[in-house]
Amino acid sequence: MLRCKDVARRASALIDGDLSSWEALQMRMHLAICKGCTAFVGQMRTTAALSDMAANPASDSDTDTVRIEAILSDVHNHRKPGK
To answer: Residues near 5 by Cβ (< 8 Å), separated by ≥ 6?
Structure first.
């Protein structure tokens, strides 16, 4: 079983899809039982989604507002941003 510090170290790789199937399974198992790590990975997903949006702005500022609201709504509803 992974420890919290292992999850923190590998969180970006999980979000980016850079882990092997076995490593991803270990991460999901830990996240299933650890609320702190689940919150941490969720915050990282939100940061990644907002960073991606900032790096690829829409041509219309209203569209960006809608995209930001969708990401923050996902956070509020405990979903993965963009999923």
So the answer is: none
Contact (Cβ atoms closer than 8 angstroms) between residue 61 and residue 26: no
pLDDT digits (tens, 9 = 90+) for 49-76: 888 888 877 777 677 778 777 877 776 6
Range of the domain at 47: 4-76
- Write out the two tokens for 81: 């941003």
Domain assignment present for residue 52? The answer is yes
pTM above 0.90, yes or no: no
83 lies in some domain: no
AA identity, residue 43: Q
Cβ(42)–Cβ(74) below 8 Å? no
The span from the CA of 55 to the CA of 61, in Å, is: 14
Per DSSP, the three-state class of 38 is: helix
Domains: count for the chain: 1
